[in-house]
Specification:
single chain, 7-stranded mixed β-sheet, 46% helix
Length: 648
Amino acid sequence: MKDIKYLKLLARDYPNIEAVSSELISLKGRLSLPKGTEYFFSDLHGEHAAFIHLLRSASGVIRNKVDFLFDKTIFEDERAELASLIFYPEENLAHHERGPEFDAWCQITIHRLIMVAKEVSSKYSRSYVRRVIPPAFTFLIDELLHTPTEDEDKYNYFRTLISSVVETGVADRLIIALCQFIQHVSVDYLHIIGDIFDRGPRADMIIDELMNYHDVDIQWGNHDISWMGAASGSRVCMANVLRIAISYNGFDCLEDGYGINLRPLSMFASDIYKDDPCTRFQPHILDENKFDPVDANLAAKMHKAIAVIMFKYEGQLIQRHPEYGMDGRLLLDKINHEDGTITLDGTTYPLTDTSFPTVDPDDPYTLSTEESELMDTIAASFQHSRRLKEHMAFIYNNGALYRCYNGNLLYHGCIPMREDGSFDEVSALDNSGKTYSGRALLQHLDRLVRLTRYSEQPYESDIMWFLWCGPKSPVYGRHRMTTFERYFIDDKSLYVEHPNPYYECCEREEVVSSILTEFGLDPETSHIINGHVPVKQGENPVKANGKLFMIDGGISKAYQSKTGIAGYTLIYNSHNLSLAEHMPFNPPSNGEVAHTDTRIHVVETMHQRVTVGDIDLGMRIREKISDLTLLLKAYRSGLIRQNTPTGY
């Protein structure tokens, strides 16, 4: 009876034998098509312009298609202009003067764009292609794509369609639609392996782009977790988010992007630290603010003010949660205010900055009245930011700590390990005495993260701070975060943040195979795709004999001096796995051709072309075929009555 109830529900979408048969034919045919191309990005860190360019250009693949199609027929500079048009159609068209020459250019360009569109859409069914064509031009683009031009009559029809577009004055709109279509079908599925936020100028614009994308998932990184914690009401995460944003001059993202009111913080900092140069808190200015420029000296005072508040909140949280095992990060109470030193593990160090006007030596972790009032105002800004809520809902709904997809295991940081390559046991972080390891640990923490989204108790989101910087946190992956030491002590030996043993163990094929097995994947054919740790210049991002890809290549400007490049994209199409290596991005301006140098290397070739039937989607299609086959039998046996169209 349960099957009958389900089949009756299914019959609402497929009301008769003809509808079921049509869908079955379509689904069975789809299984034989080549799989769509997946793109993997990691550690975007707010670099919106570079990421959007990589997305629009399919990480250099579209330019390669243009060169493949037109290498023998048009010059290199024209190919570069055509590729730039595909990436930025509105901007490029804006620099063309209208007139007879523009009309002739449009006819040639539309013809070339149709050729590119045919090439990038050739692996998809015609019904899918029709669905993703911009609606205003569905008929026209469908006709242009599928009209054979070898036949003279058909070619005349093809040319007439293009001429008519130009004559009716909609050529520029069609060109934009074709460019958007090419972008869309070039990237079938998008994976973001963590750390959308911090350091770069506009993480909010990256999320806007992702929200408009058709298929995307996110594996949360520790910087994402910090923002999620802030949006969930964690004041220590709010302070941390502000601290990092201010330290990298990210005022546009905070104020223009999310409407976080920073004026109370600037007034507080100007008053409390008015005579303090805050030398150690000068911001890193990698990008200029367009909407909210702030004087660097004022930014330094704001930076110090929020950092001290953050250290106080951290102390309160550590004292609330002895199960976190982080007493070693209680540092404000170790300061000797009389002689300007701090004693850590029996060694006394001079402080580089001894001005702590809001820190009570007898009660160092309690906020002053002014600090409390300031944080009430800041918390209200976070709470009332509609755009922040929308973005966080998207990140929660489309994100997870890990994902298994098409035989690959995706996560941002690490699987906590011991030095021998076995899974480390981690406390449940709830005083229950339970411990978790491997896949069970990530599942447990994933559940705790999701609980914070609707948390009502003031400290339910404390777990987000632990994930941000706690020992054995799978998204942080180091034994401690030495933020305080970097601000206040000159001894660089104290800055060391030892990585989890995972980062050495993952070089070994047998360890990576054990991780894949733990997550239910076949170690002979599967891979781990990982981010978080920038791959230094000269280091190979492909590890464990090709089973693991570390794809943080430095899209963030803050890391490019270490990586020597400006990011990686891992590309998984029906033929191979390729690694695209990008050079720094030069944004287009005043009609210039947008470009970034990209080198694409094939790192693994498939034994045979991968079809839809070979991937996760194929399994779901087979399940649907099975259900529809049962419905077809139910119709033919009379068990369920058909809804036959009138007059049939």
